[in-house]
Design a protein that fits this description.
Elements lengths: L2 H36 L4 E5 L8 H11 L3 E3 L9 H8 L5 E2 L2 E2 L11 H20 L5 E3 L14 H20 L4 E3 L13 H11 L4 E6 L9 H12 E6 L18 H9 L5 E4 L7 H18 L1
Parallel strand pairs: 1-2, 1-9, 2-3, 4-5, 5-6, 6-7, 7-8, 8-9
Helix pairs in contact: 5-6, 6-7, 7-8
The structure holds magnesium ion.
Amino acid sequence: MDRRSFLKTSAAGTAAIAAASVLPGCTSAQKAEQKERDAVELKISFQEGTAPGASLAEKFDFMENLGVVGFEPGGRGLLGRVDEINSALQGRNIKVSAICAGFDGFILAEDPEVKAIFDKTMREIIVAAGKIGSTGVIMVPAFNGQLPCKPHNQETRDYLCAQLHELGEFAKNEGTTVILEPLNRREAFYMRLVGDAAAIARDADSEGVKAMGDFWHMQEEVSDYGAFMSAGPKYLQHVHIASRGNRITPGEDGELDNYVEGFKALKDMRYDKYVSFECGCKGERAETVTAAVNLLRSQWAEA
Ligand code: MG
């Protein structure tokens, strides 16, 4: 046997051994991974205005019938609603997903009084969020219209991270988190990308600081998949969803309302938090939100 044919035979032999020993193992590992991915549950949540109904009880009945398992109340006056919410949820298969803002002032305010109002009202909401078992309280560092605002520079970013560290530690101690929500540039230029929010959360260096993505604002992103994956399971704590043309109910903008790429990322990262409706509604509410839930379930299955 010359050197060339020896190499040929031994390479083929090595490949055959590799195929025999690695492939069956590889297949079962892939199967296990596929099974794990298929088991990732789409946990749908509604904000308070999403379900029809005159009371929390009526809304929760409607949601339970649809298999909606999360509830996202607004933060305003939340401390005074702790007992009302806890008793309305008792015995139901619905949990508080997240709290949607509701504080006064803002964290990047130049005016110390406005900042102090933020600190006070945000902490009250965080305390209430802990008492109702919320994954976190959603916040935006500064809307475009909130002025005077600290300038968008390195010093402000460092300040923001330091302030968020304190807030995150406070939230962690209350059994919850603060969740940074990036918005589109028309609403909040400061933080527009899921990856940017996650990087700020990372640099805040507190387990109590997280990030989220909102499919509506994610018009800023190059890729829904990339956006969620850039935060990953360590930082992605919540997701908002709306139709993608007019911010009404998913499905009301027809073909535009495709969430499959984003859902693929959520499945790939084994996302175990909520996808929460934050949207208007053009059609008859009960009918429209029911169709939306069915649409999301079919796109989740496809992803
Ligand atoms: Mg949102």
